[in-house]
């Protein structure tokens, strides 16, 4: 089996393509990866302002709504009155 080594020029290109030096100056890796303030440039209106996948708050609200709906379904079936069996009189 033969392995193909990329040329030095290609390796340099790949390194600069993935993490260009101008991008790394003055920024942290968390900011590059879409960390804390990812999505602050989006302007949402209506329900999308509270439930979206771009902001941390929007994601949190989606998770809380999901958990609350699952809990409501469980409580509904737990607290629902039980059906009484019909008693035959003889």
From TrEMBL:
Gene Ontology CC: mitochondrial membrane
Protein name, UniProt field: ATP synthase F(0) complex subunit k, mitochondrial isoform X1
PANTHER family: ATP SYNTHASE MEMBRANE SUBUNIT DAPIT, MITOCHONDRIAL, ATP SYNTHASE MEMBRANE SUBUNIT K, MITOCHONDRIAL
Protein origin, superkingdom: Eukaryota
Organism field: Carassius auratus (Goldfish)
TM helices/strands, residue ranges: 63-79
Membrane topology field: Single-pass membrane protein
Entry's localization field: Mitochondrion membrane
Phylogenetic classification of the source organism: Eukaryota, Metazoa, Chordata, Craniata, Vertebrata
rRNA-binding as UniProt keyword: no
Keyword Magnesium carried by entry: no
InterPro entries hit by this protein: ATPMK (IPR009125)
Keywords from the UniProt entry: Membrane, Mitochondrion, Transmembrane, Transmembrane helix
